[in-house]
Amino acid sequence: MLDAILQALKGLPKEWVTLIISALPVSELRGGIPVALMMGLSPAKAFWLSILGNCAIIVPTLLLLEPISNALMRFEPWKKFFEWLFARTRAKSDIIQRYEALGLILFVAIPLPMTGAWTGCIAASLFRIKFRYAFPAIVAGVLIAGAVVLSVCLFGKGAFGLFLAR
């Protein structure tokens, strides 16, 4: 899927590609940072552009998810989609139910599938975490996840280079 997205973005500046990939729910910064590094961006630029792209979705998602999903759930295909999405999010977010904002930070910070900013926004909406707590918690989680992903990418790159040198 990432290959198809990269093909669609072909011709755009590297910075825009990084921002867009980091904002998408299928990749978030977990895809944005490695792609940015592969395109030749510096680690600092890859990190901050990916953070910016991933954080760009937080405010609109927190503010608009509930009214838009409520309006769309009147239609059967959308109802099934949102019921599936919300059930899946609830199943993965025990930590958020237990610890609220702190749990939201930890949930978003873990760089695994279905644990990023998008799912964090959905969980914050489902568990009715107030915007003033949800927004900084999700941003903090994104920053931590970005540091983890960048560290893994840089360590992996170095380790791979050492492996090839043998």
Characteristic key phrases:
mainly alpha, single chain, 10 helices, 166 residues, 80% helix, disordered C terminus
Mean pLDDT: 90
Strand content: under 5%
Helix percentage range: over 70%
Q: Give the number of domains.
A: 2
Distance, first to last CA: 33 Å
What does this 3D model show about the protein?
The protein folds into 2 domains: 1-56, no CATH class; 57-166, no CATH class. It is globular, with a radius of gyration of 17 Å. It has 166 residues and is mainly α. The protein is 80% helix and 0% strand. α4 (43-55) runs antiparallel to α10 (131-165).
Please outline what is shown here.
The protein is an all-alpha fold. The chain contains ten helices and no strands.
Give the SSE map:
Blueprint: H1 2-8, H2 14-23, H3 28-38, H4 43-55, H5 58-72, H6 76-92, H7 94-99, H8 101-109, H9 117-126, H10 131-165
Helix pairs in contact: 2-3, 2-4, 3-4, 3-10, 4-10, 5-9, 5-10, 8-9, 8-10, 9-10
